[in-house]
Structure formats: C-alpha cells, structure tokens
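ARCHIVE CARD
Drawer: 12
Card no.: 0347
Subject: one protein chain, sequence and derived structure
Cross-reference: see card 0346
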Amino acid sequence: MRYWFGEKIRAVRERRALTLREVADKAGVSESLVSQIERNRVSPAIDTLLALADALDLDLEYLFSDYRRNRSVRITRSTQRGTFTRPGVLYERLAQLENPSPGNEGIEAYYITIDPGAKTGGKEYGHPGWELGIVQEGTAELAVGNSTFTLSPGDSASFRADAPHILSNTGNTPLRVFWIITPPKGEIGNGG
C-alpha cells in the first residue's frame, strides 16, 4: 500500500505563502521534486520527507494522521450480550476491552438493572480505577466512601473507585443504569 503526502504538503506550503522554490531551497532538494511530491507523482524517501517537514515546520504526526485509520472495532449485538446476575441485579456486558495497547488500561461497560430494594457494590472495599454511571430509569442512591447521593433519570456520577461504593435502588420500579469501569474488573458486583 502506498501512502501519499502531496496534498498535505501543498496545503501547508500554500497556507504559509511559500513558493515551490523556497521550500525546495530550504529542504535542499530540487523544485521539480517538490512539485512531483505535491502532485503524488513520486513518494519521497524518508530523508526527503524529513527535510520537507523541517522546511515547512510540519509535525510528522500531521503528515501521518491518516495512515492506518482502519482500527479494530468490536460489535456486541443486543442478542449477544454476556449476562450474569447477583440477587436482585442483572448485568448485561456491552463491551470489554482489556489492555488494548500499552499504557491503556482498558474499559468495560454494562447495562445494569437493579430490582427495588436491591444493590450492587460493597461497603468493605473498593478497587483501583474509575467508574462512571448514568441513570436511565428509576431512582438511585449512590454511596461512595462516607458520602451519599440521590440520582434520578438523566443524572450521572463519576468517581475514583478505590473507596467502597454501593449503588442501591431506592424506588418502587426497576433501576436501569449505564455503567462504565476502567480498568476492567470482569464481573462487577462485589465491591464494584
């Protein structure tokens, strides 16, 4: 697969009101070569590309920003969600990406349904990472450490998960929430 830089180089040169000759002189190449590169007639050698980037004061990241745009995408169909339960709580796993790249801790997302009077989490301990939740339906009570909050439909909460935390359904109808955890814990519900 051949990757072309011409349009980007020309656009930057024209924005900076530089001529082909000025860029060629700064880069130490011929004006004809710069013109051919801009028109995607030739693909520059790496040293030529670096010289052009320096001449135009271009960030190499900008030049390569379109390269390898196709990324892995995981689709979880609504009929294929992994589910598990705890007393009065149904967890539907929407997504889980564990350590997709170095330095990235991963993420998981759940749609959780909690019966009236039921709860998820634990008051003894938390876990490393962060959580973010959005109430879709029902009324929730969120206890994080020594603080307690009432959440209604449309409300969201985010917090460091290292403190004990509990999400309870304080209403008379099922509580439905969308919940995100990073890094992934696997099956949530015990201290999560």
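Annotation on reverse: Residues 78-182 form a domain with the Jelly Rolls fold (CATH 2.60.120.10). The mean pLDDT is 88.
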